[in-house]
Design a protein that fits this description.
Layout: H1 2-12, H2 33-42, E1 67-72, E2 74-75, E3 79-80, H3 86-95, E4 97-101, H4 110-120, E5 126-130, H5 131-137, H6 147-153, H7 155-163, H8 165-171, E6 181-182, E7 191-196, H9 197-203, H10 211-223, E8 237-238, H11 244-248, E9 264-267, E10 270-273, H12 278-292, H13 307-313, E11 319-323, H14 324-328, H15 330-334, E12 343-346, E13 368-372, H16 379-388, H17 392-400, E14 407-410, E15 413-416, H18 418-421, H19 427-433, H20 446-450, H21 455-466, H22 481-507, H23 512-525, H24 528-544
Parallel strand pairs: 1-4, 1-5, 8-11
Antiparallel strand pairs: 2-3, 5-13, 6-13, 7-11, 7-12, 9-10, 14-15
Helix pairs in contact: 1-17, 12-22
């Protein structure tokens, strides 16, 4: 919090045109170039023996003369750079460097757009993409190594990477170079379990403390008509991620399965693949049973992102694992529609081995970032521009928007305007439409999110942090080009096979116990052991860095 205060106070000292999260103060308007030249002609000539003082740039200017850099930003099949984005327009005012987007806003396939651009041979100055692309094309010469540029011209990035050794390791390619500066999220507690407390009260039940107690509670929700309509229509567990949240319940039996990036876990110093372990088998047996008994939404794999609102709004959903801010907000949404509605966060139930843990957390650093291409004419201006977003003012801009438009300073701290907090769309959607909170190279500030979290959401996040429930994530590994080629070939076959088989098991289309050995054999045939060996080697390199 102190850092945020210093952020905004620092910005307050800047000229309003160049400020980030700061109060503006009246200063003499900056003179135009013509005015400067006119005044210069009125000054007496400098005597030969007099040394000319170094010219100082105003505010956060990177360059005296306006510079334009080309930018490729097309990510997640969703976000495409727009000249209308207030984030980069304000940054232009503050740095004197303009960004010109090169990706077509009408294009919808980010990977295809990136591949076409790379194949053209002519690259824009700054490119936003994922780490594996930087690691692949950087050593080939498409991207510039940033190590020396950071050391000499990016003091803010340098300071951060010195303090965060884990992130420096993540950004360092196997050849020892850093080719990108990536998005760094903030706030470890992101998701947790929620349960209908009003249903528990009606049925005389306590919040479940173990996976077995959870089964008993969900069974009661299904069988004992807690919504009081006389029908057996309750579908206790809500999944709005097309089955991913259902599969993730495998953590209740000690399995590591949350997503394709988190199948991996450490048993001591040994890397293991979650879906090939016995805990996964046990989880699938139980989840198949839960599904057959109606404890999981029958449309869990197909209902989609609106499942939470649909099932809660129809008063038939009673348990979920989801994001704290948006899930806690359900109480405000449905309190007038459903009498006594009370959907509250709860601690993770102990798994089958007695361990209490939360499988999800924000990544330490995101895979997406930006780097400088081989074709940039002035790499120093480029790295200084990337460094701008790590200044206090730049970080504040990307997190909160523009002062007076998106937020005001209250007691020296940025506070979103009521029009932002109570607008028709979520705060994050509002900001991203204007180009803020983009997953480019900047350090997120959790304070921005806390402002639109209600009291219940904050309570849930604090519960998970204070309880130390959040499991340590598998380390972020770097692979050689040769290793990545093998992974690209084998993981693209292994991942869909695991997903398809898992879905069949949960839906009851295949018997888990009867098919387990055949499943393991198929994984071996697809090359899982070679993949495990690659991860093990990468982990050992990581430990030696």
């Amino acid at each position: 919090m102190k850092k945020l205060v210093s952020l905004c106070l620092a910005a307050a000292l800047s000229v309003s045109m160049f400020s980030g999260c700061g109060q503006t103060k009246t200063t003499e308007p900056a003179k135009t170039q013509d005015q400067k030249q006119t005044e210069a002609t009125k000054q007496p000539e400098t005597k030969p023996e007099e040394a000319k003082p170094a010219e100082e740039l105003p505010g956060l200017f990177i360059t005296k003369d306006k510079q334009e850099l080309t930018l490729h930003l097309h990510v997640y099949n969703k976000f495409v750079f727009s000249d209308s984005w207030e984030s980069f327009k304000k940054a232009e005012e503050m740095t004197n460097v303009k960004m010109k987007g090169v990706a077509q806003e009408s294009a919808t396939d980010s990977a295809q757009v990136f591949n076409v651009m790379m194949a053209s041979g002519s690259l824009p100055d700054i490119i936003v993409t994922e780490r594996e692309n930087f690691f692949k094309y950087g050593p080939e010469g498409a991207f510039l190594p940033l190590n020396d540029l950071i050391d000499q011209h990016a003091p803010n990035i340098k300071k951060f990477l010195t303090e965060r050794e884990d992130i420096r390791k993540y950004l360092t390619a196997p050849d020892g170079n850093i080719y990108s500066i990536n998005f760094v999220p903030d706030g470890a507690a992101a998701q947790g379990y929620f349960i209908r407390q009003d249903w528990l009260d009606k049925l005389g039940l306590e919040q479940p403390k173990t996976v077995d107690e959870l089964y008993t509670v969900l069974k009661a929700f299904r069988e004992n008509d807690p919504n009081g309509n006389g029908k057996k229509d309750e579908t206790p567990y809500i999944d709005r991620a097309n089955g991913q949240k259902t599969v993730a319940l495998a953590a209740l039996w000690g399995a590591h399965t949350y997503s394709d990036k988190d199948h991996w876990f450490l048993d001591g110093n040994k890397v293991k693949f979650g879906p090939a372990e016995n805990e996964y088998k046990e989880a699938m047996i139980n989840l198949s049973k839960w599904y057959a008994e109606g404890l999981i939404d029958p449309e869990a794999f197909t209902r989609g992102k609106n499942a939470r609102d649909i099932l809660l709004g129809d008063n038939i959903g009673g348990f979920a694992h989801d994001w704290f801010p948006s899930t806690a907000a359900a109480n405000d949404k449905f309190k007038d529609k459903i009498e006594g509605f009370n959907f509250v966060p709860m601690a993770p139930p102990a798994d089958a081995k007695g361990k209490v843990w939360e499988y999800s957390s924000r990544p330490v650093v995101n895979a997406t970032g930006w780097g400088l291409s081989k074709d940039i004419k002035d790499p120093v201006i480029g790295i200084k521009y990337l460094d701008f977003w790590w200044t206090e003012e730049g970080r504040c801009l990307m997190n909160f928007g523009v002062e007076g438009v998106d937020y005001d300073l209250v007691d020296g701290k940025p506070k979103f305007k009521e029009s932002v907090l109570k607008g028709e769309e979520p705060v994050i959607s509002y900001l991203q439409k204007k180009g803020f909170q983009m997953q480019v190279g900047f350090h997120q500030d959790f304070e921005y999110e806390k402002q639109w979290m209600n009291e219940l959401a904050l309570k849930g996040a604090e519960m998970y942090l204070d309880g130390k429930f959040i499991a340590k994530r598998f380390p972020l590994l770097a692979f050689t080009a040769e290793e990545q080629k093998v992974l690209d070939q084998k993981e693209t076959a292994i991942q869909p096979f695991v997903e398809e088989t898992t879905q069949k098991w949960i839906l009851g289309a295949e018997d888990v116990e009867k098919n387990w050995d055949a499943y393991l054999k198929a994984l071996n045939d697809l090359g899982i052991q070679e993949v495990i060996d690659i991860y093990q080697a990468a982990y050992e390199r990581y430990e030696k860095q």
